[in-house]
Design goal:
The chain is of the alpha/beta class and about 850 residues long. Helix content is about 30%, strand content about 15%. Among the domains are: about 120-195 and about 420-525 and about 555-600, Rossmann fold (3-Layer(aba) Sandwich); about 215-410 and about 655-665, Dimethylsulfoxide Reductase, domain 2 (3-Layer(aba) Sandwich); about 720-855, Barwin-like endoglucanases. The chain has a seven-stranded mixed beta sheet, with helices on one face. Helix 9 (about 260-265) links the parallel strand 10 and strand 11. Helix 10 packs parallel to helix 16 (about 385-395) and helix 21 packs across helix 22. The longest helix is centred in the first third of the chain and has 19 residues, at about 5-20. The structure holds ligand MGD (2 copies), iron/sulfur cluster and molybdenum atom. Iron/sulfur cluster binds near residues 63 and 68.
Length: about 850
């Protein structure tokens, strides 16, 4: 794509328009350049560099188009971003990049961006209520927000304030936690549980890693992917897609996915599983590997006499087995695994038993250089905790955990992610307010949300809407939200529209008016994260972690502000003016420049100060202990990236942060966590399991076991299953107003350009009398959407695959047919019923969605 010329022309035109707007010229320009003083005035407006040869400069920053958080460089000429590429200082991805990076240019220069703060003038809220936003100044906007917060303080009801966070950088602690605490609310709510929280359940409860993983693709011999599509989605797409060709040469790649993903299309084998049944496959692979004696003995352990006693359906005497770095293999076998034969799984998951046996045998032969990827698709489901455990168990069984060619956790990166303690800046009102139950009901009997083993430590984002609708535990009167669009991105959009209509006063910090903004009282225009904001991000892949900066590189286009730094700064100032000065004092007494020990002199200095504060341990004298030794902040600013040392394989073996310090096939860690949750509610563990809609009781609850997916709706009325997917061009929910998104939509296998496509198997097409291009309606138990059908062999019969991302009705002129009125395409979340994997608090986006197709 040649942006330079295209954008160069635009730049020239913009300058001319600017000149004409000032009244310097009224008519067109002709040849007499040097002689005409007016023309000279225009020339002064022209860029000072030659746009054709390109004499601008590259500036480091970070893309947050997806959770890869690639380090970037932006080419800037005359204050305008022209081109984006990977930052060669990153040891993860070097200059490599995914194609989505370019869409960021269309985002920052989106003509539909929110350009000034706005206030709602229509007091009625609803999908069909035009908010009638009117421009106001930042001063007035912040004054109004501060008034609403002060009113809560006067009533001693500060818990009715909530801060909602979507995408964020590691500079978020002030706005997200500290301000919320000082205001006096327990309600800082992150989007994590609509993102990928269930993924973390297997790794945490089996090897103590609450986090994502990196995959040592350069040394692997076998990749088994449950839904992950790393050349299109997942994390570190830039790195993995640049390496994938070599990976396919050196390793066997098997992709398990109900649809033929981009990665499945390139893989050696595609397993088109029925959605919701991945754990059956994973468990049967484990079963067969044990029967055949193929587990990795140096990691797992072995029978003391070396004789394999695993026979299908038969219990084994645990005393005959000696553990190595893993714990509880025999318990797992006796409690559950012994019955999960390949034939059983083939039946449950709609597969071929020979395929299952073959995978197990090949993995055994490739062990320990094997890696199992687990994507949202497999685990963001009702009962997804157990799928996450079943899939991750294979990493342990074949010795891939922390091993060359296997999977690693992220490397250590010392950062000041948590800002200084703010408890001295919380007065009696704040302390009392913060003690209330959180609005998402986390920690209740039926919502354990057990992040890192602690009941109620995780978030239940999607439950915020239900709680507000039920006014249980209370109502939300003042809401501040940023970089999120839950009225579009969370399941069952209708319940969000209803809930947001009930919030007394809501302010949204956003680059664009979105579906969430539609319900706002106040719109606060945000800087674009990649070109106009200071931030800090982390990523891992290729054996290293990097920390990279977001740094403003272009002239700020409109009257916008940075969400995580300038907005709380302005708010604290306003609250101080109104007599509540604790947040303002906190900012000036605690958030100090690590070099000078001084606070920011003004708002302009503040955003950089925060980034400097967060990264201080990296560029300080001890940074070299963990990775690159930098000479100081200026070097980090100039490079934009710090890299950790390489991961040392086996670093955690027998030092796992689990109860036994081993890799737990029988999770003592989960046993303890569930036990504590049960005790808190004065019930036994089986009552917790019952309340949380799982089906494995007693000790079975602590081992990977098969639990059939809950399905929503009657199979006769809704005979098909929805398979949601990300588009290769999705920048999460934010690509929708970029024309390139539609133009190149057919990069998604099976999709049609300029359409929102539901893909069905030709067998189903024939049954339903549908052909490619027909307009259809997808109907579920909670809603319906309209889109276009495409017949495609890449989806298993009985399922419908459709990209998430379209169906915006309020995101700009390209995103909707008519802004505020009519959507372009259909939003999958309108037909996804609100359900949870309750142990993690994660929302279910897969496995439970029964639908039918109607012709339009
Ligand atoms: N059906 C379905 N639903 C999904 C997913 C899926 O695959 N399928 N994916 C899920 C996942 S993994 C996630 S993480 C969530 C994400 O969901 P959210 O956290 O809600 O994020 P987005 O939908 O990307 O919306 C971000 C919003 O922030 C605003 N914005 C855009 N750019 C900027 C910026 O630079 N700065 C600021 N301050 N604001 C900006 C815009 O209003 C935009 O709508 O969605 C989830 N929802
Ligand atoms: N292109 C692109 N990449 C992204 C993002 C983006 O918006 N666009 N967002 C980023 C974010 S926020 C996140 S959290 C990560 C998430 O990355 P992943 O965790 O990899 O998740 P998704 O891509 O959402 O996973 C959906 C996949 O699961 C498949 N699937 C659906 N149902 C099932 C099932 O029952 N079993 C199996 N095995 N597969 C199933 C779908 O076909 C699809 O391929 O991606 C990041 N990368
Ligand atoms: S969209 Fe994701 S993979 Fe692509 S450049 Fe941005 S962060 Fe990296
Ligand atoms: Mo996500």
């Amino acid at each position: 794509m040649n942006n330079t010329n295209k954008q160069g022309v635009d730049t020239r035109r913009r300058s001319l328009l600017k000149a004409s707007a000032t009244g310097a010229i009224a008519t067109g320009v002709t040849g007499t350049f040097a002689l005409n003083p007016m023309i000279d005035a225009i020339a002064a407006e022209l860029p000072s560099v030659d746009l054709r040869t390109g004499t601008g400069s590259w500036h480091p920053t970070t893309c947050q188009g997806c959770t890869s958080w690639c380090a970037k460089q932006v080419y800037v000429m005359d204050g305008r971003a022209i081109k984006v590429r990977g930052n060669h200082h990153s040891k993860i991805h070097d200059t490599a990049s995914c194609p989505r990076q370019h869409l960021n240019l269309q985002q920052v220069y989106d003509p539909d961006r929110l350009k000034t703060p706005m206030i709602r003038t229509n007091p009625n809220k609803g999908h069909d209520q035009d908010p009638q936003f009117q421009p106001i100044s930042w001063d007035k906007a912040m004054d109004l927000l501060a008034d609403k917060i002060m009113a809560l303080r006067e009533k001693n009801e500060t818990h009715k304030y909530a801060l909602l966070r979507g995408r964020y950088s590691l500079c978020n602690d002030l706005l997200y936690s500290k301000m919320t605490a000082m205001i006096g609310s327990p309600n800082n709510i992150s989007h994590s549980s609509i993102c990928a929280e269930a993924h973390k359940m297997g790794p945490y409860y089996m090897d103590g890693n609450w986090g994502y993983m990196q995959y040592d693709v350069k040394n692997t011999k076998y990749i088994l992917s449950f839904g992950a599509d790393p050349i299109a989605s997942n994390r570190q797409v830039s790195f993995y897609s640049s390496e994938w060709g070599n990976t396919l040469d050196r390793a066997k790649v098997v992709v398990v996915d109900p649809r033929l993903s981009a990665s499945a299309a390139k893989a050696h084998k595609w397993i088109p599983i029925e959605t919701g049944t991945d754990s059956a496959l994973a468990l049967a692979i484990a079963h067969h590997a044990l029967v055949k004696g193929l587990w990795h003995k140096p990691f797992v352990g072995d029978f003391s006499d070396g004789k394999n006693r695993f026979v299908a359906g038969k219990e084994v005497d645990p005393s005959t087995f000696t553990d190595a770095h893993a714990y509880g293999l025999v318990k797992w076998w006796n409690l559950a695994l012994k019955d999960y034969t390949p034939e059983w799984a083939a039946d449950v998951a709609g597969l071929n038993a020979n395929d299952i046996r073959q995978i197990a045998e090949e993995m055994g032969a490739a062990a320990p250089a094997v890696q199992v990827w687990t994507a949202r698709g497999a685990v963001m489901q009702t009962r997804g905790t157990y799928t996450s455990m079943a899939c991750h168990a294979l990493n342990g069984l074949f010795g891939g955990v922390d091993n060359e060619g296997g999977v690693f956790p992220y490397n250590k990166t010392p950062l000041n992610k948590n800002f200084p303690d703010a408890s001295d800046y919380m007065d009696a009102i704040a302390k009392k307010g913060k003690k209330h139950e959180k609005i998402d009901q986390r920690g209740r009997l039926e919502l354990p949300a057990m992040k890192k083993g602690k009941s109620g430590k995780g978030v239940v984002t999607a439950n915020v809407a239900s709680s507000i609708n039920a006014a249980d535990p209370y109502e939300i009167e003042v809401m501040l939200a940023y970089f999120n669009n839950f009225a579009f991105s969370a399941p069952d959009t209708k319940q969000w529209e209803q809930a947001l209509s009930k919030v007394g006063f809501m302010a949204h910090i956003t680059t664009n008016i979105s579906e969430f903004s539609w319900f706002a009282d106040l719109l606060l225009p945000a800087n674009h994260h990649m070109f106009e904001k200071w931030g800090v991000l982390n990523a891992a892949g290729n054996g290293v972690s990097h920390i990279s900066l977001q740094k403003p590189s272009i002239e700020r286009l409109y009257d916008t502000r940075q969400d995580e730094s300038e907005v709380p700064y302005l708010l604290a100032q306003k609250l101080a003016e109104k007599g509540f000065d604790l947040p303002w004092r906190y900012i000036n007494e605690q958030l100090l420049d690590p070099e000078t020990g001084k606070p920011a002199a003004n708002i302009d200095e503040f955003p950089e100060l925060l980034a400097k504060y967060v990264t201080a341990p990296l560029w300080g004298k001890d940074g070299g202990k963990y990775g690159d030794q930098l000479s100081g902040w200026d070097e980090l600013k100039q490079k934009g990236v710090w890299n950790s040392h390489e991961y040392k394989p086996k670093a955690r073996w027998s030092k796992f942060k689990t109860e036994t310090h081993k890799f737990e096939f029988y999770s003592k860690t989960l046993e303890k966590a569930l036990g504590k949750h049960a005790k808190k509610h004065h019930v036994d563990v089986n009552e917790v399991i019952e309340a949380c809609e799982y089906t494995g009781y007693d000790q079975v609850a602590f081992v990977p076991n098969y639990q059939a997916p809950v399905r929503d709706g009657d199979a006769k009325a809704f005979p098909l299953l929805l398979v949601d997917q990300k588009s290769r061009l999705n920048l999460e929910g934010r690509s929708a107003n970029s024309p390139w998104y539609y133009e190149f939509k057919d990069v998604d296998p099976g999709d049609l350009a300029d359409e929102d496509t539901a893909k069905i198997n030709p067998i189903d097409g024939e049954k339903l009398g549908l052909k490619t291009g027909d307009k259809i309606r997808l109907v579920s138990t909670v809603g319906s959407i309209e889109c276009t059908v495409a017949l495609w062999e890449g989806i298993r019969p009985g399922s419908v695959a459709k990209c998430y991302g379209q169906g915006h009705w309020a995101y700009g002129r390209a995103a909707s047919k008519e802004f505020g009125k009519q959507a372009r395409g259909g939003n999958n979340n309108t037909i996804i019923p609100n359900r949870f994997d309750r142990f993690s608090g994660a929302s279910a986006f897969y496995g439970h969605i029964r639908i039918r197709i109607e012709k339009v």
